[in-house]
Fold each of these.
Amino acid sequence: MNDAQFRQLLNRFEFSWSGYRKVKKGVKKRIGRYMTASGYRTMAAFLAELEQNDETRHACELLMTVSISRFFRDRRFWETLEKTLLPKIIQRRDEKISVWSAGCACGDEVYSFMIVWDRLSKTCSNLPGLEMTATDLNPTYLQRARAGIYSHGSLKELTPEIRSQYFRQKPGKKLFQVKKFLKKNISWRIHHLLSDPPGRDFDIVFLRNSVLTYYEEKLKKKALEKVLSRLVPGGILIIGSHESIPFERPDLSGVEPYPYVFSRTAEK
């Protein structure tokens, strides 16, 4: 599959060439293998089938999902979340904090948050309950997330102390599994970010390195509007460090010094 053919495929889904540019090699390989196994000899024939067959379209979209992450990606942000942002939210919540990791991939981000929450539980005397909703379109990624097994490279941002406290190394392998207590209060769900959100009244929404990277402008706006409809006033939205909000939202204000963290204010 050459780049021109890949662009045709991206256009059919309204996906972004610039977003896929750095990961196109692996995605093209997956799609190419699928096309060969399914008997599609040309991109034109495959595109025609995508128009007619929802099952094929869904299978292709799953193959185009990308899972590139690691624990505590953008380390300084996680330190601010633990020391500043979360304590402020906790102050105004007596019963429960609701968090949504939208496009959670293989769970690195979800468990990063759970580590932060557990660390806070040791210093905060009145910690409210936690409800974590973790969603992704790809069921294979969710299966890996539930298992909670990661390579050493995924843990490179962790100190030896945190790694030993929250992970156990698999015997004879350079793989690490999150400890069972870290999996509590997590609801894993298959979800498409263009469909209705999996709940309401979220205090924190992670929307990092997913739709704002891989979708074209029209789909970005549609997905983001749906996500923000469930973020409570005073709640925070976290996007990828190299992403931006594609349209003006007067009810969103930046959280210094991070251009990718936003607080939702009450609409006037």
Amino acid sequence: MDALALELPDGGPDTGFDAVWSVEASPHMPDKQRYADEMLRVLKPGGCLAVADWNRRDPSDGPMSSLERWVMRQLLDQWAHPEFASIASLKRNLETSPWNRGLPIATADWTVPTLPSWVDSIVEGARRPGAVLGLGPRAVIQGLRETPTLLLMHWAFRSGLMQFGVFRGPLPPEP
């Protein structure tokens, strides 16, 4: 189903979801506002939204250097993402959605605790080659192709170009 046009009813007391959970989906969405609107639209009043996502440094925190622009272009191209949202911009998309009902969205930056996962992904593949080889030649080629991108992503998170953002927004029940 198209995440920007979910074929689901609007969230109401008898329809919708008690919780909407999204993990690392925002980078795939060309329209971040529509993505935020759709997640909140299908949520029941009183439901909980939880999002964990790769985010770029907010432009208000300073422009990217030429190296950062090159790394960003590589990340977007290698994983075919249209753009990364910043934590602040995705929070704004969620808070300004007409489906939000005016509640604040809580955010946190989990970059530091998630940072080791980039290198750990590579190490795990090398530590257990049988598991990777057992997936077939296409998976091996894909893993080899993605290794440089994983290293670039690790550098981007370590340098502050990227952040791992988490978002939470309970919505009040309708009166």
